[in-house]
Give the backbone structure.
Amino acid sequence: MLIEFSVKNFLSFRDLNKLSMVGVKAFKEHESTNTFPIGHDLKLLKSSGIYGNNASGKSNLLDSVDFMKWLVLNSFRDALVEDENKSIPLKKFKLSEESDEIPSEFEIVFIKGDKKYRYGFELDYDRVVSEWLYHTTSKEVPLFTRSDDEFYINKSSFDEGTKLEDKTKKNVLFLTLVAQFNGEISNTVVEWFKDLKIISGIHDYRYKKYTIDKIKNDGKFRAWASNFIQFLEIVDLDTSEEEVGKINIDEIKDKEVGEEVIDLFTSLQKFLEKKPKQDRLTTWHRKFNRENVFTETVPFDFLKEESEGTKKFIYLLGPWYDVLKNGKVLFVDEIDSRLHSLLTIKLVELFHEFNKKNAQLIFASHDTNLMDKDIFRRDQIWFVEKNQFGASELYSLSDFKSARVRKKTAFEKNYKEGKYGAIPYIESESKLAEILHGEEEKV
């Protein structure tokens, strides 16, 4: 369960920005559906939506989370690489001279099992500047802290980290090195990052194959997905294997082509035969007679005969099922791409209404139809906006005074009117028209 994520001096985020999944205690709307309690004094949100103009930094926020995950998992691998000079692929904020000279910072607070962890680090291109890990039972306790080559190890709570300081290279995370030596706590943190899902609503390469494999091999998922998509007029879906790129060499030889061409196709065929067969996805639809009576179901070639929106929606069901079933955290960029608003709402509402494991969804969107007081609380809506210096700033609807934003406020209407900022604004429209049509008017 995610509590908070912070980033500084990375991509368009110059200053420290925090995304919090902690619900505001004073807000009582949708409490039973959109929040879940942790202990007696903490209430976490099941979902949050991030809005903003194009190029405001919404995707950069999710990319920041993705980079932190990538570094944790790849530093684990790179700990064995003999390259002290290997650089860290940072992307610092480019529009400030000061940002060139200071490190980038990442921190995440989460719950795994019955403990709360706070893990973070500061990075420069050539080294880990600082790193820290805390956990909380009754109070927060440091497990280890690091400042360049100086380490503090809590020997009573983090004995797995002792005697490993000297083995830690300057460009490798201490956490992942300790995990490589089978540290229990460090592996718990690394496993949390492995379970963290970050996907794009535009590009489906991260989850397309996963969903098809689930349809093929997981009967429960297939039943769940088939039941869920019936409102798309699809009664079932299944997979079958098909050969990739089959070439009929005999047919080519019958034609008047050169031996070099035949040899080329023969080599290509041998290569393709070594490739594994691909899974072909089929959807089934109802067929009716002239009297509109259902007679049979007919197959549709999923890739050729279904709409792009239907494809995306079904591909998304794989990670949705995994996250909801196992109580994971899911970040989705451009969730509304190629989807009707009602389909997007259905995906979001699964986290509110059918979420027994307290999974969490954080998404970026342009679809203001989702910005509805009947769907979200005030603390679930976030905005990203660039300031006059080109730096992204993240803030919540709950940051506005209650006199301006109440639980019955029309969020979407106010947002479109610019009351919360983070909207497109094009200056000098008359100048644009003059450039476009000025010469025509003179004639």
The CA atoms of residues 214 and 220 lie 9 Å apart.
